[in-house]
Amino acid sequence: MFLQGFSKNDPEISKKGPLCSGRKTKVSTAGPHLIVEMVSGSERPHSENPEYGVQEAVVCSLDSLPRRITFKNETFYLRGVVAFRPPTRDSSIGHYTALCLRSDLSWEIYDDLRERASHINDKVDVNIHLIIFTV
Predict the structure, then answer these.
(1) pTM for the predicted model, two decimal places
(2) Where is this region: Disordered (predicted)?
(3) What are the two backbone dihedrals, phi and then psi, of residue 98, each rounded to the nearest 5 degrees?
(4) N or C terminus of the chain: which is more exposed, having fewer CB within 10 Å?
């Protein structure tokens, strides 16, 4: 099951990331939105300046994502994904895009570097940073 093993008592909560002075946290309060951060757990510097890091994204196709999940006895439906394109060179910071699942089950990509949204094939591999579900 998606999110299986999710627990408030997870030992990962007390670990600090190698490039971060903060704590990794997991929040388990259910509301109308469920936002799942998808990271591989490893962080690497993206430039010679070690204070900036890039979290490794989880790469998968949009059609491999669950269309609905149940969490705390509530059913949540897949609505969209925030994708991250990593930096291509040391001076770059990367770029985020939004991918939305439409009511006809097609996907659209919203990118502020483009003038308008466009359709995207659900078989395309995407660097997924966040998955967004709603009730």
Answers:
(1) 0.69
(2) 1-26
(3) -110, 135
(4) N
How many angstroms separate the CA atoms of 106 and 14, rounded? 39
How far, rounded to the nearest angstrom, does the alpha carbon of residue 10 sit from its chain's CA centroid? 20
Q: Which helix (H) or strand (E) covers residue 130, if one does? A: strand 125-134
Residues 6+ apart with CB under 8 A from 124: 61, 62
Contacts of 40 (CB under 8 A, 6+ apart): 55, 56, 57, 58
> Rounded to a whole number, what is the distance in angstroms from the first to the last CA of the chain?
18
pLDDT, tens digit, 9 for 90 and up, residues 110-120: 998 899 999 99
What is the arithmetic mean of pLDDT over 88-99?
A: 80
* Secondary structure of 44-71 as H, E, C letters: EECCCCCCCEEEEEEEEEHHHCCCEEEE
Of 116, 113, 2, nearest in space to 64 by CA: 2
